[in-house]
Every structure is written in C-alpha cells, then in structure tokens.
C-alpha cells in the first residue's frame, strides 16, 4: 500500500476520507485498519449517547470538504457559553454573532460522527478492514514499515499513519517518548433529562475545586453531563441511584458552599466601578436548566491524563490524534486538535505529491510536525494551566481568577 492508517475512529476515518476524496490520491492504494466492527447508521438512534464532542468551525470545514457534515444524523448548535466559578460566582459569557451565520460550536455524538465519515469513505477507493487487530510492527530504518495482523497477514506501506489512540502501539513500537501525567481526576459522563426549555443551545460550565462540571446541549429535553471530580467521588456518583444522582448534579450547579466572601465583596465593587465608568458591562448572571432525570445505563467514567509525544513523525511514520497528544476535556478541544492534524497532514501530503516527493520522506513529514506542534503545544499548556488554576479554593488564586474573568467579561476586545 501507499498509505496505511491504523485506527478507524473519528480522526483515523477522517484522515482516510480526506485523502480518499482528494484527486491527487485517486491512483494511490490506501488502507484503513479498524480493530472494531463497522459503524454505519442509516437512521437516527432513539437514545442519545453520552460520548459526545463539541465540534469547532475548523472541524466543520474539514467534514464539509468531503461532504460528511450533512451526513451527521443529529447535531445541536451551541449559540451561547456560560462559564463561572463556584468560589466567587463570577463568570464569563460568550455569544455567537447572528449576522455571521456561525455558531460557537456544534455538539454531536461520537458514533454519529464516525458513521457520517464512513458513509462518505465508502464512496472512495480506500480499502477498509474491520476487526483487523495489529499484532506488531516491523520497523527497519529506511525500509517500508510492515504491519503484522492477528490473522497472520503482513502488510507493507510507504507511509504508515497512526491514529490508534493514547495507548498507541505504533508510537511505542517507534520508541517515541512522551510527556505524560495523570490528573488524579475522573470524568463522569451521562445523558440527563432537563426541564424542557424553548431553545437549549447554551453550554454551561462551572468550575468546582475538584474540577469543572459541564452541560452540553443535545436537544430541548436532553443534555450531556461531563463532570470532572476525584476518582473516589466519581466511583460514588456511579454507584448511587438515579434520583440521588440528579440531586447531586443540581446541587453542584447551585450550591454556594465554596463561595469566598472577601472575593464576592471585591468583585461586586469592581462590577459597579466598570458599570459607572463606562469601561464595560458584566453579563447578567444566568442559571442552567434544572436536571430532572438521567438516562438509564448512560453513566460512565474515564480517568483523565495529559499525554504528548515528543515527536509526531519518524521516517515513513506519522502520528495523529490521541496517538500524538491528549488534553484535558474542560475546553472540548481534544478531538478538534485531532481533526486539525488531519487538515495539516493531508495538506502536506498533497504538496508532496505535487512536488514529486516520497510520501514517507522525513523532511516532508517534518513540515506536518512543525505546523501542528506550533498549534497543539500552546493549547495544551493553556488547558493544563486553567485546570490547575481553577481546581482549588486558595483565596489569592480565587481573587486573581475572579478579577481577571470579570474584566474579560466586561471588556469586549479582551473577551
């Protein structure tokens, strides 16, 4: 094969579809290997999945480039975003610009995204093998890499792209070291029923000392809960009954027990000063819709870690998505960074074809690595800083972040 992509999740499938729909790759032999079964849905599922993504405008453009966006069976636009602090109740509100026709984001379920991409991928010449588990890789310097499958097949590729997740076998086989640490936090996710609102298009996130709790809109009756907390608390939240769980969620959004009295008084004075001097106007405090139920079987949890590969490429090998980098979910940027890898690598490979370069040439692939690390590293550092900055209730830090957030919310150009 000219190109073999290991991992058929959202990012791996998008990589295959992007290349498969490019005229420059029509004569190239491309293979996508996926260890799981085929995911192709012909109708909208009755139940929502708790595994969702917040898709950015750049991701929308990527999926539109091979006409997969309109194939996503269920999408919920995010027009507003409200983020606030449980220790001071100071927050910041983001609103989309109606005249632009663009939303802040769209929320979609992972399985529906994969299905939409595969739907378009099947219209290309890209070969797909499902339930194809990689046993090992044979990597001998300048030779084409070989992929040994569980069934005994041995495949050879001029370029091997790893989209096989945070525990990437390809990355380990290449001896690419990583910078990684656990956050000592666990995310609890579930599909929750909300008290029906006319337009559920606001994403709500409150920072608690143990981590952020977020509600992403799915419809006027449902939202997806993503609650970051301690491992022990996550275990408890999974074990309690549905009614108790709903009560805990509402309490987490409304409880004032973490409030810092001194900070509250000072931010109140700052708010009045900003308003009377005309320097800016803080947004009006808003509350999320009340949670009234939880979908049975939708509660799940997963540990949170940061992981970054020191290298994204080697000769004839490239890593994308979680195989190259994994971030905290508080900003909803994880999969968007992966789709950004797809955009960048596809562009570099198209340029290589036009120049007559070898697809797996290390100098060619280095252009992709440089481009992506310039985007990914600042994003990772910012997300990690915000998580650490907000996941505590130390008075000086509460005061600093509250005043900073208040000024940012009041002054449009800073926001």
UniProtKB/TrEMBL annotation:
EC class (word): oxidoreductase
Main location: mitochondrion
Pathway recorded for this protein: Cofactor biosynthesis; ubiquinone biosynthesis
GO MF assignments: 2-methoxy-6-polyprenolphenol 4-hydroxylase activity; 4-hydroxy-3-all-trans-polyprenylbenzoate oxygenase activity; FAD binding; oxidoreductase activity; oxidoreductase activity, acting on paired donors, with incorporation or reduction of molecular oxygen, reduced flavin or flavoprotein as one donor, and incorporation of one atom of oxygen
Mitochondrion is among the record's keywords: yes
GO cellular component term, pick one: mitochondrion
Compartments in which it is found: Mitochondrion inner membrane
Keywords assigned by UniProt, alphabetized: FAD, Flavoprotein, Membrane, Mitochondrion, Mitochondrion inner membrane, Monooxygenase, Oxidoreductase, Transit peptide, Ubiquinone biosynthesis
Pfam family, one: FAD_binding_3
A biological-process GO annotation: ubiquinone biosynthetic process
Cross-referenced InterPro entries: FAD-bd, FAD/NAD-bd_sf, UbiH/COQ6, UbiH/COQ6_monooxygenase, UbQ_mOase_COQ6
EC number: 1.14.15.45, 1.14.15.46
Membrane topology: Peripheral membrane protein
Annotated catalysed reactions: a 4-hydroxy-3-(all-trans-polyprenyl)benzoate + 2 reduced [2Fe-2S]-[ferredoxin] + O2 + 2 H(+) = a 3,4-dihydroxy-5-(all-trans-polyprenyl)benzoate + 2 oxidized [2Fe-2S]-[ferredoxin] + H2O; a 2-methoxy-6-(all-trans-polyprenyl)phenol + 2 reduced [2Fe-2S]-[ferredoxin] + O2 + 2 H(+) = a 2-methoxy-6-(all-trans-polyprenyl)benzene-1,4-diol + 2 oxidized [2Fe-2S]-[ferredoxin] + H2O
All copies of domain FAD-binding, residue ranges: 2-220, 310-375
Annotated family: Belongs to the UbiH/COQ6 family.
PANTHER family, per the entry: UBIQUINONE BIOSYNTHESIS MONOOXYGENASE COQ6, MITOCHONDRIAL
Function: FAD-dependent monooxygenase required for two non-consecutive steps during ubiquinone biosynthesis. Required for the C5-ring hydroxylation during ubiquinone biosynthesis by catalyzing the hydroxylation of 4-hydroxy-3-(all-trans-polyprenyl)benzoic acid to 3,4-dihydroxy-5-(all-trans-polyprenyl)benzoic acid. Also acts downstream of coq4, for the C1-hydroxylation during ubiquinone biosynthesis by catalyzing the hydroxylation of 2-methoxy-6-(all-trans-polyprenyl)phenol to 2-methoxy-6-(all-trans-polyprenyl)benzene-1,4-diol.
Self-association state and partner proteins as the record states: Component of a multi-subunit COQ enzyme complex.
Name the record gives this protein: Ubiquinone biosynthesis monooxygenase COQ6, mitochondrial
Organism listed in the record: Helobdella robusta
């Amino acid at each position: 094969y000219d190109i073999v992509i290991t991992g058929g999740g959202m990012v791996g499938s998008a990589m295959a579809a992007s290349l498969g729909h490019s005229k420059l790759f029509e004569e190239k032999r491309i293979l996508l290997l996926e260890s799981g079964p085929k995911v192709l849905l012909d109708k909208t599922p009755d139940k929502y999945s708790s595994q969702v993504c917040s898709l950015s405008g750049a991701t929308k453009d990527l999926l539109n480039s091979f006409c997969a966006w309109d194939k996503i069976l269920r999408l919920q636009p995010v027009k507003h975003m409200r983020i606030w602090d449980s220790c001071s109740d100071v927050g910041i509100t983001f609103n989309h610009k109606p005249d632009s026709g663009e939303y802040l984001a769209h929320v979609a379920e992972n399985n529906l995204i994969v299905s939409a991409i595969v739907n378009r991928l099947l219209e290309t010449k890209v070969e797909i093998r499902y339930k194809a588990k990689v046993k090992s890789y044979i990597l001998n310097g300048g030779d084409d890499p070989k992929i040994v499958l569980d069934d005994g097949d041995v495949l050879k590729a001029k370029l091997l792209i790893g989209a096989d997740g945070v525990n990437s076998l390809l990355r380990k086989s290449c001896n690419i070291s990583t910078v990684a640490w656990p956050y000592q936090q666990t995310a609890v996710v579930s599909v929750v029923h909300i008290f029906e609102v006319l337009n559920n298009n606001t994403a709500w996130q409150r920072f608690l000392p143990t981590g952020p709790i977020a509600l992403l809109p799915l419809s006027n009756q449902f939202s997806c809960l993503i609650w970051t907390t301690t491992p022990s608390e996550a275990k408890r939240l999974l074990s309690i009954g549905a009614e108790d769980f709903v009560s805990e969620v509402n309490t987490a959004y409304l409880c004032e027990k973490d409030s810092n009295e001194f900070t509250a008084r000072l931010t109140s004075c700052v708010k009045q000063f900003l308003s009377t001097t005309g320097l800016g106007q803080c947004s009006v405090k808003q509350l999320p819709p009340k949670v009234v139920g939880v979908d049975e079987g939708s509660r799940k949890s997963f540990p949170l870690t940061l992981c970054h590969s020191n290298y994204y490429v080697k000769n004839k090998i490239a890593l994308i998505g979680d195989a190259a980098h994994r971030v905290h979910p508080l900003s909803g940027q994880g999969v968007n960074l992966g789709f950004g890898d797809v955009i960048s690598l596809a562009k570099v490979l198209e340029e290589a074809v036009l120049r007559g370069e070898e697809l797996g040439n290390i100098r060619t692939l280095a252009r992709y690595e440089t481009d992506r690390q310039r985007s990914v590293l600042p994003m990772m550092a910012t997300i990690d800083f915000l998580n650490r900055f907000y996941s505590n209730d130390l008075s000086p830090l509460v005061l600093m972040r509250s005043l900073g957030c208040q000024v940012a919310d009041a002054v449009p150009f800073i926001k």
